[in-house]
Amino acid sequence: MARKDELGRRGEQVAADWLEALGYRVVDRNWRCRTGELDLVLRKGRTLVFAEVKTRSSLDFGHPFEAITEQKGARLRRLAAQWCRDHGPFAGEVRIDAVAVTDAWSEKPKVEHLTGIV
Q: How do residues 42-100 score in pLDDT, each as one tens digit?
């Protein structure tokens, strides 16, 4: 596995653990369809959350949130809609969040969470 893939997987695990500590429950991970992938699907109460996780080893090449473009936001909306169609009706709120993880390999990675990004 490439170092970049390892970093991404580590960041997703850090994000999942961090969100679970805040009361979210992981419903699905790395869900794929032919048009893309959702990193994390979570529930908190009546809210279904699709979380895009961006991981960087440092901020030398910009903040992780900078990688979430308008096009990426549109793709996340389409993927979230497809996940909902594939998993049946859902009563409650649906939200798309972003989670940035830096220093993922350290003892205390830095995690930032933005809610309702698109």
A: 999 999 999 999 999 888 889 999 999 999 999 999 999 999 999 988 788 999 999 99
Distances (CA, A) of 112 to 9, 54, 85, 98, 115: 17, 10, 29, 8, 10
Query: What whole-number distance in Å separates Cα of residue 98 and Cα of residue 28?
Result: 16
> Amino acid identity of 45?
G
Tell me if 87 sits within 8 A of 99, measured CB to CB. no
Query: What is the distance between the alpha carbons of residues 71 and 26, in angstroms, rounded to a whole number?
Result: 25
Residues 35, 62, 100, 97, CA torsion sign: negative
Tokens 């698109």 -> residue: 118
Sheet holding 36-44, edge to edge: 25-33, 36-44, 47-56, 93-102, 110-114
